[in-house]
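Rotation project, supervised by the postdoc (A.L.). Task for the rotation student: set up a whole-complex structure prediction and record inputs and outputs verbatim in this book. Inputs entered:
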Amino acid sequence: MLIALAGNPNTGKSSLFNAITGAHQHIGNWPGVTVEKKEGTITFEGKKITIVDLPGTYSLTAYSLEEVITRNFILEEEPDVVVDVIDATNLERNLYLLTELMELTDRIVIALNMFDEAKKKYKLDVKKMRELLGLPVIPTVAIKDKGIKDLLHACLHGYFKPKKLSYPEDVENRVEKLQRMMENLDLKNKRWHAIKLLENDSEVRKKFANLGRKDILHEAEHLRHEIEDIYGDDIETLIASFRYSFAHGLFHEVAEPLNVGGVTITDMIDHVVAHKIFGLPIFLVVMYLSFEFVFVVAAPFQDAIDLIFNGKTLASGQHINGLIDISYHWMASFMPNWASSFINYGMLRGLAAVLTFTPIIMFLFLILSILEDSGYLARVAFLMDKLMRKIGLEGRGIISLMLGFGCNVPAVMSTRALKNERERELSIALNPLIPCGARIQVFAFITAIFFKHNQALVMWSLILLSMGVVALLGYVYSKTIFKGKAEPFVMELPPYRVPSLKGIFIHMWEKSEGFLRKAGTIIVGAAGIIWLLAALPWGVQFGGENSYIGQIAHFLAPVGAPFGITPESIIALFFGFFAKEVVIDVFYVLYGTKEALFAAMTPLQAYSLLLFILFYTPCVATLATIYNETKSTKFVLFVILEGFALALFFSFLAYTIGSFLGVGG
Amino acid sequence: MKLQTKVLLSVIYSSILASFSLILGIFEIAGSLGLHTNFAPPDIMGGFSLIIASSLILYGAKNTVKFLYDGLSFYLVGLALLIAIGLLNIIIALADLLDYYILCIGENCSGYSAHIRPEIYIFFLALLGLYPFFVRWHFRRKVP
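Outputs recorded:
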């Protein structure tokens, strides 16, 4: 058996080596260089073990001979176990090398050396460290021969199921791309090679040049520039900062400092935003400020787009033509009226509806990108970890739930960050219950008409109800359908930074683009279909009771009665299945004006409708994404049924209680 | 003036501002529950935000005067939140102004009469309380 001792300089590695091997050691040089190589052989529990003391290094870059020797030995000789000797009195700094070793090998035993000294500095939770890393962690005091037998025992019989350090999605996607290009190469640990190529490691670059794979080198360079553009920093600093985030997060989880030490601005902010009492209210304030910013700042842009496309009717009754009217009259001069009407008042108005929602979606993703890139979202995950575990998810689950407020499609996709399949499925099942930006738009539209003086209160009641249902169902699901506990993991805590403008805009665009494409196709299509149903059969009043849409409304009238939902609303809900924003479009087609809509429903009926919209089936794009992520039709059906069951329950409850009490009728 | 005195004055100033913000926040919540006042617009979440930000400042004030990081952290995060709330209200006012002129196109609108929320004054006043941030290296950790 071969064991390698690695670690930072001055961690007591040599003392540990001496304590293990005693007099049975041989000193020489590493081949071709003058760096000292110490090797020893012992027999432990009847097994012959060779111990190699690797040179002390702070990292595994290619800058020094010691670093190259260490990483090449681990990569090429593949020792059975690598013991990372950590100076426990300088835990956080020493954890950086561990992050690099974890990329090289899975079989690591951590020796927390100088543990007696460290206890005076921190309160260390060794058991938690073992759980979080999935590796054996043994406290040792090498100069006093303490913990040596436990260490060797762990090397022989230890449990190795390491949690992998994962980089942000932008980096991981590019690492995977490079790995795929290396598929046919005879290389050990392709992931490590891919990361090192992205890091611009000179030794690894030489290796690929010698292999004659310039295509991989060119691609790596291209991908490296892309990452640097997104984050606005050089790659070495970035990769190092991701590893430090992991080390910092792990340190925060397992060590409680007892003594004086340097305090950074990050430490100061973390001290408050991750506070037991203040942390959650601060999170609520940040969320409130973010949403307020999104909706208020988007409003003038939305009104401007609406004005440009739809024009407006002045108080005097005079109508200012918008682009749609102008285009309609122009087309009507050379094509039949119905065709011009279909193109302009059907399709083009659908497109205008999409563009009207664009500012809100873009600002929402802008603010989420700022929160993410600044490092605050990682703290939210840290803060919510304990709470989220009660509903069977780890802290990172909160991020996908929060993204759901923007759009459920990227939110469902973001559950990939959860490594545990059970947690992922649970998160996907809960995600559609979070009202997306489109549903919030519909809420804003309806509440503005029916609850002018209590708009914020009604909106908040819906959002809080959805959060309550998510918490309750999460708890129930984690005890029944998705039974299990959230796995322990290390929460990366990057230092706070001012996000780069370019990075924010790239992230914002990446997230908004998908939404716009979906909206641009589905909404425009749905708008065309609605127009046809409202116009056919030919000769009837547009959207009148003799039109197809009017007939469907008449037919569906009894279905919505127990919930106070009007037939017109049922049609809107049906089309909302294509995209939630279409609900507003249908109301415009069916009622013409907001005043007519106000006259058609009581506030209680409107609230019942809002509750139905809050929970009923997610849009077709979300369902397609859920299928893509789970590859299960049953799961998609489950999500649809879950939504309808909740929608019917709350809608019925609200309408029945409201009617009984005579509220809002 | 001695550093201690400057920090003390700064903390006293911010504590007065935080107390005012706290009262304003309470009135904003009360307003949305039907107890209207002239100086506080009804706004539940706006009021809640003011209460949290000012509570942080008041909670950290004592230890900030003692030059401890523990206090300074709360004091500065509270001030930062107060500034963010003020900044948001400035942005809201500008967005409202822009929206007003967009909605007025073609109409015979009278001039825009801005309703300036107290949070906007708080934004500028809170900036003056940031002095301890610039001398933060004089602070120390509490030794157990």
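Student's summary: Helices of chain B lie at 3-32, 44-65, 69-103, 118-127, 131-134.
Supervisor addendum: Chain B has five helices and no strands.
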